[in-house]
Amino acid sequence: MKILGISGSLRQTSHNTQLLRVAADLLPPGTELEIFDGLDEVPPFNEDDERAPPPRVVELKARVREADAILIATPEYNYSVPGVLKNAIDWASRPYGDNVWDGKPAALMGASPGSQGTARAQYHLRQSFVFLNMYPLNQPEVMISNASQRFDGQGHLTDEGLRTRIRQLLEALVAWTRRLRTES
Ligand SMILES: Cc1cc2nc3c(=O)[nH]c(=O)nc-3n(C[C@H](O)[C@H](O)[C@H](O)COP(=O)(O)O)c2cc1C
């Protein structure tokens, strides 16, 4: 089973990108996780170009298509989804009729220095998933507050409870993806 990981942060020492790397070490057997690292080269969406998208968007769409499931790790910006992530989601949903997110199982996680642990960004993403026709996993929710206290100076996640939570999220995503496949 192939999972595509997408981080909503371009920051070099991003906690959210680091969460995807942690997830790569906690995968259930028979599962692989690739991280899409080209979000910084995705230009602002322009509907005039949606039928001839730029190369990074072509790549993103191909990799989403190939993936059995999507894992998004995102910060929260101004109580919502970071623009770079929403922009990439919009590109890959177009042109109308070629929405690569359609029918994809997805799991969410996020880390922020604040007390709400990206809850608002995650729920805004879930709202977009309705129109994209994605199938987000409901539980467990991975919303990491006070992020700087959960990582050491090298960016390693030091909180064992959170590692367990991420492992459970991955197991649930794999089970959810299998279930959707069986039923379709
Ligand atoms: C434009 C902007 C808006 C932000 N808004 C929020 C917010 O609404 N809620 C929050 O918890 N953190 C907010 N933050 C702080 C981010 O969560 C913080 O920068 C976080 O470390 C980014 O995640 P990263 O480590 O993956 O880059 C904001 C940061 C920026 C740059």
Descriptive report:
It is a single chain. With 184 residues, the protein is an alpha/beta fold. Helices cover 38% and strands 15% of the residues. The chain is built from 5 helices and 6 strands, in the order βαβαβαβαββα. Strands 1, 2, 3, 4, 5 and 6 form a 6-stranded parallel sheet that branches. Flavin mononucleotide is lined by residues 9, 11, 14-16, 75-79, 112-114, 116.
Topology:
Blueprint: E1 2-7, H1 15-24, E2 32-36, H2 55-66, E3 69-73, H3 83-92, E4 105-111, H4 119-132, E5 135-136, E6 142-144, H5 160-183
The structure holds flavin mononucleotide (FMN).
Flavin mononucleotide binds at residues 9, 11, 14-16, 75-79, 112-114, 116.
The number of helical segments is 5
The helix-and-strand class reads alpha/beta
Mean of all residue-level pLDDT scores = 97
Hetero groups: flavin mononucleotide
Brief sketch in words of this structure:
The protein has 184 residues and is α/β, with parallel strands linked by helices.
Characteristics of this structure?
single chain, alpha/beta, 5 helices, 184 residues, binds flavin mononucleotide, globular, six-stranded parallel sheet
